[in-house]
Amino acid sequence: MIDLGECDYLIVGAGATTLAFLDTLVTELPDDTKFVLVDKKAAPGGHWIDSYGYVQLHQPSIVYGIASKQLEGNWLKCMLTQFMMPWNHRANKIEILKYFADFVEENKKQIDFYSDSVYDFEKSNEDVHFFSSMDGSVSYKVKVNVKLIDGSANENIVPHNSPLQFPVDEEVRVMTTNQVYDAHNENQKEMRTNKYVVLGAGKTGMDAVVYLQRTMKIDPVDIAWVISQDVWMSSLNGGGSPKSHSILLLKYDNDMQKAALEGEEQRSIVRLDKDIMPTVFKFPLVSDEELKLYRNVKTIIRRGRATAIRRRANSKDDDDDGVVVEFGSGDDHSPWEAFAPIDKCVFVHATSPGPFVGSFTAYQPDHQEKKEKETPSIGIFNSEKKMTLNLLFEPPISISVSCLAKIEASRNKGTLDLECMKRLMLARMKMKGEEEKSSSSIDSREDNNNNYTENEMLDALLQQYELTAARPMLNLAVFLSICDKDPLVSMKWMKQNRLAFLGSIPGFKCHVCNGVQKFITKGIIDGKKVGLTEQDMRMLEPMKEQIQPLEGM
């Protein structure tokens, strides 16, 4: 076992989430801060390494990546050489991987990167941590002086390393999006003779439908699309964004269907078929051209999730054997017989769950209550020695973890506004009845706010985002309240951060003071409708006073 000595932070994962966090820590903390970065893959980039060759961002490049370096490049160059506004730039796989690799290389004096390595969660303790090479040939240990940062909890799972989760007969041709891309590059003529069934309607499935038509020149009549549930999407040409959806959710007290329908009227939100009411909201930004290509596909199979793909029960000697997709039981889940013989029918596997599974996509009104009962949140600030990275705001993830890193850096440097944090905690824990006192470990303390540690306060004040109207605005208000003793300093930092809308879009305003006032006006009953707890409501007044200097920003 190799003893690496000491480091300040050990970071698990080298994908977009952890690199955005790490970049802000590198910027904010002294130059002698030491980081150990561990990842299972051979290079920085996370899921982008395993993604298909034609993949592009489904969000603008200007709000993705790391805060210290533009992903879209020089804005004037972007307009003059690529003939596009920076907002419309969506980086491809090659650009993204180079961008992340360059960041790690440029900071190698502070960052020790261990590729092809896996962290040992079971063996490690708060102080001494262990990881090893993927093949087990080399083991390492390191003493972590400050904190473990876990960026693996919401790993983005892509089809390339996630086989179909249901039985498929051996003769059936299933290809991942990576395999379709590679095969097309090797033999375009042969690939054009097939018919294609796309499995999945997430980002990967949408990209596959576009690639088949735009690049492979497959006639849409030769494409079928299995969609287990329709989704709402943000419109690039209509000015849509995850934030615009949150504003509508707030307007309609978290009634997601009403919010989506108004967004559709405004053209900021779109759906595949206006006769089908989507049940989930996804955050990709799609262009009118892409939407047109989606709608070109007329063979849409909406019978729930596929449960098996079978060779049609004919003689094995029959050259015209077919293939059948089976679905769950019920009248609307009957099997679908594919529109081509088994040897000419390619099933495109695009069904992997992606990142943040279940965190913010469900539309059912009781989703929040169900999720809390079934999978309790592990939180962000797990202990004095560990953080688990997660969303504070709407996707993309980059600005959320950059803000978490700013909070961690402020904690490290002693510049958090602890007095404000104590006031907010005192307001949150102001008892209405003894039943609240035992509702959680933090609530069970005596009503003396001086007893709370920094970590306990952070854990209570900043909570991970789910698809509720209030949480992003509340987390922003908390961040601006506590990150520095002067909220104007926090706001200045946010405005200088390219990952934030405040920093990337000229003239953008967050209206945080107005948002907090709206929450106060709603009261407890209506506040709960937009995702606020009674404890959240009780800290709004002191928070409003704290951020008053930000009025109009």
Task: Characterise this structure.
The protein has helices spanning 16-28, 75-81, 93-106, 177-186, 188-191, 203-214, 242-251, 256-265, 288-296, 367-374, 398-413, 418-428, 434-437, 454-461, 471-482, 487-495, 501-504, 512-529, 534-538, 540-546, and strands at 2-12, 35-38, 111-114, 117-119, 128-133, 139-150, 173-176, 195-199, 223-226, 231-235, 269-271, 280-286, 299-301, 306-311, 323-327, 336-337, 345-349, 386-388. It has 553 residues and is α/β, with parallel strands linked by helices. It folds into three domains: 2-150, FAD/NAD(P)-binding domain, CATH 3.50.50; 159-230 and 272-349, 3-Layer(bba) Sandwich (FAD/NAD(P)-binding domain); 416-550, no CATH class. Strands 1, 2, 3, 4, 5, 6 and 18 form a seven-stranded mixed beta sheet that branches. The protein has a five-stranded parallel beta sheet with strand order 7-17-8-9-13. Strand 4 (117-119) and strand 5 form a beta hairpin. The chain starts with a strand and ends in a 7-residue tail after the last helix. The relative contact order is 0.11.
Summarize the amount of helix as a percent range: 25-40%
Kindly estimate the percentage of residues that lie in beta strands according to DSSP. Answer: 15-25%
Give the number of DSSP strands. Answer: 18
Gap from first CA to last CA: 54 Å
Quickly name the level 1 CATH class of the largest domain. Alpha Beta
Architecture of the largest domain, CATH level 2? Answer: 3-Layer(bba) Sandwich
Number of helices: 20
Q: How much is the radius of gyration in Å?
A: 25 Å
pLDDT averaged over residues: 89
Protein structure class = alpha/beta
**Integer count of domains:** 3
Q: Which term fits the overall shape?
A: globular
Report the major sheet. 7 strands, mixed
Low-confidence stretches: 358-375, 433-449
CATH superfamily of the largest domain: FAD/NAD(P)-binding domain
CATH topology of the largest domain: FAD/NAD(P)-binding domain
